[in-house]
Design brief:
- This protein has 485 residues and is mainly beta.
- It folds into two domains: 6-341, 5 Propeller (Tachylectin-2, Chain A), CATH 2.115.10; 352-475, Exo-inulinase, domain 1 (Jelly Rolls, Sandwich), CATH 2.60.120.560.
- It has two helices and 34 strands.
- It has helices at 6-9, 17-26, and strands at residues 42-53, 56-64, 74-80, 87-93, 104-112, 115-125, 131-140, 146-148, 160-172, 177-186, 191-198, 206-210, 212-213, 222-231, 234-242, 257-264, 269-272, 277-278, 286-290, 300-305, 320-321, 328-333, 336-341, 349-353, 362-369, 374-380, 387-393, 398-405, 417-421, 428-434, 437-442, 447-452, 461-465, 468-475.
- The strands form seven sheets. Strands 13, 14, 15, 16, 17 and 18 form a six-stranded mixed beta sheet that branches. It has a six-stranded antiparallel beta sheet with strand order 24-34-25-30-31-32, with no helix packed on it. Strands 4-3-2-1-21 form a five-stranded mixed beta sheet, with no helix packed on it.
- The chain is globular.
- 48% of the residues are buried.
Length: 485
């Protein structure tokens, strides 16, 4: 693994020519994806600024151009007419002001009439490398790129630690006010969210107080990427608690959880209907962000980073890593959250493949089950050995997933085996494979499991033990891997 100096990680990108050769190099990788958003070069992490505006879906991601390293962060811009086909648009926000001199960090967006507004964390550091986070704003200009306000909306509060970031902008129709939820950490190292409000988007912001989640006053050491949305009359609260280990999550200290419940904006209190649940049970899922302006009160749209902070992956040897998940529709039925790929994804299906033990490089696997024990090995060698193990224990109603059998192993110390408890017996699996990622949807979205994989040329088989009906499809490409900066 390459060691990067601070100067290398935080160098400013002055010309596309500085990274053109890098793009040409990584474009030849067998792990480059064909229907997932991925970095044009270097590293992608948190999704940002996700919104529907005037017939176009806008999505940005945290981007460090130089390699598989967290350093000077930009917002890289992609667009889509349908959440399936994506086009590279180039840099959206660059760290080019005093307030964001060391990074345009995560944030959100909202469409308001003719305009699309962005809210992000400006990461400022002084000569001693002391961090000051500012909450900044921008507006989409006529040339299709965000134009920053001259000054931040507000700075950090000194009654919290320096960890104050990831503004999520929401409109509350009952209060006729905008609210910004900011991921934060108290001075005694507890995770929380600050809440600000205003009647207008670009001025008048006042600090309302701290979010209170009943029963979770001491939960994690920092809450990144807060997101709240009302779906079918219930409030859904999502965030990423850091600096804590949770039961059943091995050695990981970075998670993505959700609550279904009720948000009271008068008391800033969220009352959960039950305990937290994991948004995704996989090895590599973090910083999920919901889209603004979905336009359907019974649906949310979510996308996440396939990756975790502090982790690194096999593609790092090729100087790139990370991608986005498939966009997911969120529904709440009978008090339960369901996540399914957006409907247009299945339009990518090409010919149906014979179920003869070989996986597509980019495609879908659908398995009908009978609720009994099932063993599935993906990415086995020609002899059916090794691979990515999925085992369903019907007596416990729990799935166990292990990546120990893969040739290219990564992040072993964080954990290579995880469990996924199910709500109902296993009846159906939809598995989306795209060169270096696997997304598993169980029982039409009751639970999900996301992971990176880096198969060798010999690891494209599969083996099933147990009763199962298998269907396979190749997928057409829907993401243009063009060099646009």
């Amino acid at each position: 693994m390459r060691e990067w100096t601070r100067e290398e990680r935080y160098q400013v990108l002055e010309s596309p020519e500085q990274i053109r050769e890098l793009h040409e190099h990584i474009s030849r990788s067998p792990w480059r994806q064909t229907y997932h958003v991925q970095p044009v070069t270097g590293l992608s992490s948190d999704p940002n600024g996700f919104a529907y505006h005037k017939g176009v879906w806008h999505l940005f991601y945290q981007w460090c151009p130089w390699g598989a390293v967290h350093g000077l962060k930009y917002w890289y811009h992609v667009t889509s007419p349908d959440l399936v086909t994506w086009k590279n648009e180039g840099i959206g926000l660059a760290p080019d002001t005093y307030y964001d001199n060391r990074g345009t960090h995560s944030g959100s967006a909202i469409s308001d009439g003719e305009d699309l507004y962005f809210f992000y964390t400006g990461n400022h550091r002084d000569e001693d490398w002391t961090r000051t986070p500012y909450t900044c704003a921008a507006k989409l200009s006529a040339d299709g790129r965000p134009e920053k306000l001259e000054k931040p909306l507000f700075g950090p509060r000194d009654d919290y630690s320096e960890h104050q970031r990831d503004p999520k902008i929401v409109w509350n129709d009952e209060k006729k006010r905008y609210y910004i939820f900011i991921g934060a950490q108290t001075l005694d190292k507890k995770g929380t969210s600050q809440i600000y409000s205003s009647e207008t988007l670009l001025k008048g912001w006042t600090f309302e107080g701290q979010l209170h989640v009943v029963g979770y006053e001491d939960f994690g050491g920092m809450w990144e990427c807060p997101y709240i949305v009302n779906i079918s009359g219930k409030d859904l609260l999502i965030f990423s608690p850091q600096y804590t280990k949770l039961p059943g999550r091995s050695e990981s200290t970075n998670h993505n959880v959700y609550f279904i419940g009720t948000m009271d904006y008068d008391t800033l209190t969220f009352t959960p209907d039950g305990p937290y649940r994991h948004l995704d049970y996989g090895f590599d899922f973090y910083a999920a962000q919901g889209a603004a302006n979905v336009g359907d009160p019974d649906k949310g749209i979510l996308i996440s980073w396939i990756g975790l902070p502090d982790n690194h992956y096999s593609s790092a040897e090729e100087d790139w890593e990370g991608s986005m998940t498939l966009p997911r529709e969120l529904h709440i039925r009978d008090g339960q959250l369901y996540q399914v790929p957006v409907a247009g994804v299945r339009d990518l299906r090409l010919e149906e493949l014979p179920a003869e033990g070989r996986l597509p490089l980019a495609g879908e696997m659908e398995i009908g089950c009978d609720g009994n024990d099932l063993t599935l090995r993906l990415f086995t060698d020609a002899d059916g050995k090794g691979g990515f193990l999925f085992f369903y224990d019907a007596a416990r109603n729990v799935c166990t997933v292990s990546k120990k059998g893969l040739v290219n192993r990564f992040n072993e110390a964080v954990g290579e085996e995880l469990e996924m408890p199910l709500r109902t017996p296993l009846k159906k699996l939809n598995i989306f494979i795209d060169h270096s990622s696997v997304e598993i949807f169980v029982n039409d979205g009751e639970e999900t499991f996301t992971s990176h994989v880096y198969p060798t040329d010999q690891e494209h088989g599969y083996v099933i033990e147990g009763k199962a009906d298998v269907r396979l499809w190749n997928y057409s490409a829907s993401v243009k891997d063009d060099f646009v900066v």
